[in-house]
Amino acid sequence: MDILWWLSYLALGGFVGLMAGLLGVGGGGILVPILTFLFVLQGVAIEHLAHLALGTAMAAIVPSASASLWSHHRHGAVRWQVVRFITPGILVGTFLATFIAAKLPTRGLAIFFACFMVLMSLQMLANLKPKPTRGLPGPIGITGAGLGIGGISALVAIGGGSLTVPFLTWCNVKLQHAIGTSAAVGLPIALAGALGYIINGLGTDNLPAQAWGYVYLPALLLMAPCSILTAPIGARLAHRLPVGILKRVFAFMLMGLAMQMLYTVFTA
């Protein structure tokens, strides 16, 4: 692989880790559009662009999700009883959604991804937060919520934070615990999503030689270490920089990346 691609994946991993540490967001919103663009330049077949980007992004979330889970657990911010009931739904929803994604065309996936990212960006700009109006549902209700969260997360390659935190906050879970519990949920989402995309891509024609199913290994192996290294830097900068302003800038960037992804797949 050309050194230019090595440097591109290293830089992308570093940037995603920095944004995750600084703003607590990032992941698929950044990775999927940029990976799609890089894969086009590398000559990946158009029918596999979105699938390969989503699968690689899900796999790249695994190490950062593991580190985040451990960090929040050490601070006592994880509601493990909620994790216990939501995880089965998360695993099933995420895994099954990868089979749905595998049947969808690249352009259909790109449209869904772009619409979701635009909605998430608008929510960030408006700073909309659900009011705590009810308590947590029972085990079946929590598992059902996990099913939906996991399904959507697999289709847009996110760790679930943009869905899990609002759900838990709405259910009167303190914000600190909602964020910590969401971090714990991010690991099963990433694992189930990565496994599902690997399985669905095995034996598929016209994938790059170094792809393992719908996960492109060179990108994964180069991005993951850099994101782990830069995430703590972002976390330290969060205490020194105007995070509110940066979040608004980031929201516009996510919308721009979503539009760029649509342009990429419709003109490739």
From TrEMBL:
It holds the Pfam family TauE. It is a multi-pass membrane protein. The chain crosses the membrane at residues 6-39, 51-70, 82-102, 109-126, 146-171, 178-199, 211-233, 245-266. The keyword Transmembrane helix applies. The keyword Transmembrane applies. GO terms for cellular component: plasma membrane. It is found in: Cell membrane; Membrane. Keywords: Cell membrane, Membrane, Transmembrane, Transmembrane helix. It comes from the Bacteria. Belongs to the 4-toluene sulfonate uptake permease (TSUP) (TC 2.A.102) family. PANTHER family: MEMBRANE TRANSPORTER PROTEIN HI_0806-RELATED (PTHR43483:SF3). This is Probable membrane transporter protein.
